[in-house]
């Protein structure tokens, strides 16, 4: 009998039995039983469908009840977020990280009682050493001048700004909220590579125009860069800086296509493409193909924009390619006004899992490499550095600035301020909070004036918290931060200041052939100004390349001084 009616079919048999019983009761007792019979009948039909469908083996073996697996799997992220994960599980942002944004955005108390929830003896725990003589900072509106000396329209950028997020990826109301908040708070809003929409311009907030390989908003009919289309927009007063996107943390080296079905008339108008036709973002730019051509393109955009600061954003990959750009700067004497380093942990957009998890250099190592290369050739004073990659709290900013950045950008932090709940449904068009969707009925959940205030509050309270950290450390401005101000636990019995983990080159070291660090010794000679290709076969030096990007590994050079004053504690 059991072989004819397996136990795994029990639920299916029970709903069949329930259908029959409820029908009998409906006929003999009361008509209300017909409602229950209808429910059981629908479940019976579901069981029959499960048995004959070819796609899901679990449903075929467990008709009716097998569907419960897929229901639980569907709501698993919500169950985990609300009932299982701890306050410090970073998947990708912890509850503690999200909470501090919500609290600061809503002007709520962001203090914590009863001590830290961090394990201060765990590996990688970091802290700032305080001073016995704290400082006092009267002006907490920290500004960095970008383009001074080579631009007729330099820009004083805030120490904390909105990172690149496009209209199309974000809803119209989210863009409105971000820009209105940036206007009120006096900080910059990066447009993302999707072009400048009317929603970016509505409130008049300062914009950084991000130009990707698709040249959206400044392209000709063939998808190539157009001088006239660029100049028409770049000279608008709202546009304060121009940022060429070479790569991004979410998917460096990967292009993308927006399917024609999603290219609405509005998006097509913003991007300068044809409605209903696939919109291509190539993996590489067509306006340049060598390091020298990249810098000539920078110079061209600076001229076409009327002397506004021009720079580029990149996620570091092959180190010799970055070094090739630096060598091109030396050869041409053309330098960008700024460079934004995007860590591989960054990214608001959806991307292939392998790219999200394993492509590109994380922010700390990438930022230190960029900073050190510019110091090593004596160009650091001419070029400002921005940084982005999971920057949420004031301590995140402090550590990033200490490693060499002049300012910080945050994308997901400001998404939280607008109302994002980390549902991780950004790519589905079904964002529950209306932030990452083009569905008009969903995005109406965002009340622009309210969310704009939250954006302003999050920025102001975060910068205020940074100022308090600086005061406690005895400093008066973020530009005084150095890597030795931050300490990291290496093990239960060893700690090091970051300057020992990520040592710094001295000015002009690379020009003198003093490499100090292994990665420069091996990869600097591979770089060439007129090509991104290495000067000789990588196979010949592969065993020498420090694949871990451990900036602290010394060069074989014996006589070079090496951070003697800042050794591990």
From TrEMBL:
Which Pfam families does this entry report, sorted A to Z? Glu_synthase
Q: Where is the signal peptide?
A: none
**Transmembrane: present as a keyword of the record?**
yes
Arranged from A to Z, the UniProt key words for this protein are: Membrane, Transmembrane, Transmembrane helix
Against InterPro entries, the record matches this protein to: Aldolase_TIM (IPR013785), GltB (IPR024188), Glu_synthdom (IPR002932), YerD (IPR027283)
Glutamate synthase domain residues: 158-475
Kindly list the biological process annotations in GO that this record carries. glutamate biosynthetic process
Similarity remark: Belongs to the glutamate synthase family.
Protein name as it appears in the record:
Glutamate synthase domain-containing protein
Organism source for this protein? Advenella kashmirensis (strain DSM 17095 / LMG 22695 / WT001) (Tetrathiobacter kashmirensis)
């Amino acid at each position: 009998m059991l072989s004819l009616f397996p136990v795994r079919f029990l639920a299916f048999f029970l709903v069949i039995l329930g259908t029959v019983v409820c029908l009998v009761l409906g006929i003999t007792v009361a008509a209300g039983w017909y409602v229950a019979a209808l429910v059981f009948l629908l479940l019976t039909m579901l069981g029959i469908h499960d048995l004959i469908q070819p796609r899901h083996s679990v449903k075929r073996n467990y008709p009716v009840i097998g569907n419960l697996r897929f229901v639980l799997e569907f709501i698993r992220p919500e169950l985990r977020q609300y009932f299982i994960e701890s306050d410090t599980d970073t998947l990708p942002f912890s509850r503690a990280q999200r909470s501090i944004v919500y609290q600061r955005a809503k002007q709520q108390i962001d203090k914590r009682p009863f001590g830290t929830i961090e394990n201060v003896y765990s590996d990688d725990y970091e802290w700032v050493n305080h001073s016995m003589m704290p400082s006092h900072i009267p002006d907490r509106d920290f500004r960095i001048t970008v383009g001074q000396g080579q631009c007729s329209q330099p820009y004083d950028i805030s120490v904390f700004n909105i990172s690149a997020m496009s209209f199309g990826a974000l809803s119209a109301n989210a863009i409105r909220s971000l820009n209105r908040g940036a206007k009120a708070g006096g900080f910059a809003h990066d447009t993302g590579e999707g072009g400048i929409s009317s929603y970016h311009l509505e409130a008049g907030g300062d914009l950084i125009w991000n130009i990707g390989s698709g040249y959206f908003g400044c392209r000709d009919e063939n998808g190539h860069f157009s001088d006239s289309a660029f100049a028409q927009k770049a000279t608008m007063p709202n546009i304060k800086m121009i940022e060429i996107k070479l790569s991004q943390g979410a998917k460096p080296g990967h292009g993308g296509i927006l399917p024609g079905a999603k290219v609405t008339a509005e998006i097509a108008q913003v991007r300068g493409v044809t409605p209903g036709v696939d919109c291509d973002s190539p993996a590489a730019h067509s306006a340049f193909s060598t390091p020298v051509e990249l810098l000539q393109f920078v110079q061209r955009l600076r001229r076409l924009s009327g002397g506004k600061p021009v720079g580029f954003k990149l996620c570091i990959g092959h180190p010799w390619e970055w070094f090739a750009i630096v060598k091109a700067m030396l050869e041409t004497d053309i330098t960008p006004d700024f460079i934004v380093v995007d860590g591989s942990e960054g990214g608001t957009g959806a991307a292939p899992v392998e790219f999200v998890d394993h492509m590109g250099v994380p922010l700390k190592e990438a930022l230190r490499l960029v900073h050190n290369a510019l110091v090593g050739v004596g160009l650091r004073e001419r070029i400002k550095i921005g940084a982005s990659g999971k920057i949420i709290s004031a301590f995140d900013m402090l550590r990033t600035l200490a490693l060499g950045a002049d300012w910080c950008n945050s994308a997901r932090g400001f998404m939280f301020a607008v109302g994002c709940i980390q549902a991780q449904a950004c790519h589905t068009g079904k964002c529950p909070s209306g932030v990452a969707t083009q569905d008009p009925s969903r995005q109406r959940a965002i009340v622009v004036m309210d969310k704009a205030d939250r954006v302003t509050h999050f920025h102001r309270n975060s910068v205020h918290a940074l100022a308090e950290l600086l005061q406690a450390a005895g400093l008066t401005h973020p530009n005084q931060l150095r890597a030795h101000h931050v300490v990291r636990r290496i093990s239960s019995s060893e700690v090091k200041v970051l300057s020992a983990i990520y040592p710094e080159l001295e000015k002009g070291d690379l020009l003198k052939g003093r490499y100090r660090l292994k990665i420069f010794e091996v990869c600097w000679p591979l770089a060439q100004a007129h090509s991104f290709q290495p000067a000789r076969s990588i196979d010949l030096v592969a065993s020498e390349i420090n694949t871990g990007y451990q900036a602290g590994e010394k060069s074989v050079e014996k006589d070079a001084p090496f951070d003697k004053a800042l050794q591990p504690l």
